[in-house]
Amino acid sequence: MLPNIALERLNGNSENTHDYAGKVLLVVNVASECGFTPQYHELQALYDEFHSQGLEILGFPCNQFGGQEPGNDEQIQAFCNTKFGVTFPVFKKTDVNGLHTHPLFEYLKAAAPGLLGTEAIKWNFTKFLIDRNGLPVKRYASTTSPKNIREDIKKLL
């Protein structure tokens, strides 16, 4: 079960993971200047299609891979809104690896390791699918298109 972990949105509002209890979650580390950034379109399409059925997509900007998220909170929010029309929750810039790894990503990496059992996140747009009971179901590589996760999401809804 997903532990209760503090989260802070780009706008400064505080939340925690238990605020999303009973929802299917897709947690993604995102970046504005990444080759995978166009995945925002597909993430938003999934959110539009399934949000009313209980899907939440949680975006966590990360600047640990090639400095591809250099902006401040306001710049990131403006980019997400104007360039991709993002309406799903986006949180403060987050470390997903290393000494200052956010507790949510510590938990997800241990619960849903990557290829050959590795826990480290390799790049931006790594995705974690979590069921309604707060159990991580699957981890997807950056190269996995969000539209290819659609069927897995439908099974959990």
Brief synopsis:
The protein has helices at 39-50, 73-84, 103-111, 150-156; strands at 6-8, 14-16, 24-30, 55-61, 127-130, 136-140. The chain is an alpha+beta fold and 157 residues long.
Describe it:
There is one protein chain. The protein is α+β, with helices and mostly antiparallel strands. It has one domain (6-156): 3-Layer(aba) Sandwich (Glutaredoxin). The protein has helices spanning 39-50, 73-84, 103-111, 150-156; strands at 6-8, 14-16, 24-30, 55-61, 127-130, 136-140. Strands 4-3-5-6 form a 4-stranded mixed sheet, covered by helices on one side. It has a two-stranded antiparallel ribbon with strand order 1-2.
Identify the notable features of this structure and list them briefly.
157 residues, 4-stranded mixed sheet, alpha+beta, 4 helices, globular, two-stranded antiparallel ribbon, 6 strands
